[in-house]
Prior knowledge:
Elements: H1 4-15, E1 21-22, E2 25-26, H2 29-41, E3 45-46, H3 47-58, H4 63-75, E4 79-82, E5 87-90, E6 102-106, E7 112-115, H5 118-130, E8 140-144
Parallel strand pairs: 6-8
Antiparallel strand pairs: 1-2, 3-5, 4-5, 6-7
Helix pairs in contact: 2-3, 2-4, 3-4
Amino acid sequence: MMNIQETSQFDYEHQHKPEPYVGNCYLTPNEHMVHKALLSVSKAMKAYELLDYLRETEGVRAAPTVYRALNALEEKGLVYRLVSTQQFIARSTVAKTGETCLVLICDRCGSVDMIEDPQIISALDANAAQVKFAVRSRKIEFVTTCRDCK
């Protein structure tokens, strides 16, 4: 049987987990700051643009702080790196391991959207296999014009 002190410690540990979490993914304070900033701007940003934004809004001075956070967020599946433009976009949920998105980028306003379609990915993998290529990584980006810019 637990005494009152043990019960209080047990309750505290199970009700007050460190914040912030996104899904089951713990974020350090810097990761949380960078993720929150990317979500708030609702567009893709280059690392130096994000650094400038965080200098203005959060007083961040050190570039490595932002770069380390972006790398960690990408590994955790909360940030997607656009290969064609070297920009980053936040995901509001953690990407599943091995998940591939089709990324649509408006070349006029820079807005970005993602489509998850396993059938398209399977078809592309099958086509690669037919010509004797084994897909190791997928980054599929389409340069488009969004609905607002048409």
